[in-house]
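User: I'm putting together a small comparison set for a docking exercise, and I want a reference complex before I start. The sequence is below, and the ligand is magnesium ion. Could you produce the 3D structure with the ligand included, as structure tokens?
Assistant: Of course. I'll restate your input first, then give the structure tokens for the complex.
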Amino acid sequence: MNAPAPRFFAFDNTYVRDLEEFYVLWKPTPASKPSLIRLNEELARELGADPAALASPAGIATLAGSLVPEGAEPIAQAYAGHQFGHFSPQLGDGRALLLGEVIDRSGERRDIAFKGSGRTPFSRNGDGKCALGPALREYIISEAMHALGIPTTRSLAVVATGDMVRRDRAQPGAVLTRVAASHVRVGTFQYFAAHQGPEQVKRLADYVIARHYPELATSPQPYLDLLAAVGERQAELVARWLGVGFIHGVMNTDNMTLSGETIDYGPCAFMETYSPGTVFSSIDSAGRYAYGKQAGIARWNLARLAETLLPLIDTDDNRAVQAATAVIDALPERQAEHWLRVFRAKLGIDETGDAEADSALIDDFLRLLKQKHLDFTVAFRALFHAASGDPTRLNALMTSATDFADWQSRWQARQPTRPAGLLTAMQRANPCYIPRNHRVEAALDAAVDDNNLEPFERLLAVIQSPFDERAVDAEYAEPAPTEFTTSYMTFCGT
Ligand code: AMP
Ligand code: MG
């Protein structure tokens, strides 16, 4: 059994090299009977790997955690985090392992990591495993986000392990291979701030600057600038979420990256009928992470990051707090600017208008959606059709909305004509297809209960091209039946 380890990736592992003490070296748990459920061939190529090799028995065994490939140095990363506002000093990779890093075809460093590869020293009471349903869910939603142009971790593969995992009922187990710009989280900073002090936080901050914000390396105040730069990326990210109706569902500080990518697709879901209070997660009864609260929560999380950076920002406590507070206080304006950019694109209006007037125009359209209980995605798509010269759908949605005629004439006056570029941008801001919750659930049920991957593959194909309308895919653009949405609940994949 001493066959040489297969080589699939050209690993180059800076986290292991540069940050000893920030992780535990660990091995994935071998799977009983690995079988390939889904391989992202395009992403494999992007990472410099051969998809055929990954789909071979040795490749599948590797993606199941049964073989450690050459050059990988699997680690469980340490992190802490505020979960629903309460601090847990020790979380860490309880069911994940970072295999290593590769430089992709465009020269970017990417993490390749497993989710569901067995217990680690951070597992606490968990089994370290992942059920097939949640693995497929992360695959489809992360790939949808990517297709929508939103920064996100990607999914390289889902492999069934052949082992059952115990949840509310026994379910087939799986390993998801996740690809990320990095897995450093706000919670990673919190862990080292809580347990080890400023020297270690500085090492981590320097690592993050080198990896994600190299332009800050020569700044006279790199750590304050780091806080502002992460704030900027998160402001943009959340604005993009809001633009497609995405609800992350569990915006704990351990689920917020320093890179600005969306991470950890647990109880996330897309809003259907427009309503800022929308929550789907079964564990969020207070609505802390509702659609409309996400920008505020991002600020709250960034304030937690700021706390860990204070000793690096200034040796004088008061001055450090003052400087960091100024950055946090500037966030609402940064977020408003990104929100305005995203929603101007959705309305098909250019960047030249008065910000306040444009914000009011956007808000008034959202008010109409709310008043008419309209599906967010369908209504904005109809607006795009209206801008393209066919107002039939929009008029049908807005029948008997008395304020609509007035709104429409303001919208028309604001942007009487649209150059092609603006219309294309409007199309890309208003997808026709999102991974609708009822479609996702049906696809997962078929895969898990009936071993039928056809609905999953079909849905995946649809959401991978979200902007061009296709007659054959018409049903995928339709909202869920109301009965479905009113009782829809998402669960953490644990
Ligand atoms: P999450 O809700 O997925 O963001 O996870 C929060 C924390 O719980 C992280 O430290 C995870 O590693 C850990 N965790 C989640 N599920 C499991 C599991 N099945 N076994 C062990 N640890 C888990
Ligand atoms: Mg997490």
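Residues 91-96, 122-123, 126-129, 250, 254-255, 264, 266, 492, 494 surround adenosine monophosphate (ligand 1) (CB under 6 Å). Residues 222-244 form the longest helix (23 residues).
User: Thanks, that's exactly what I needed.
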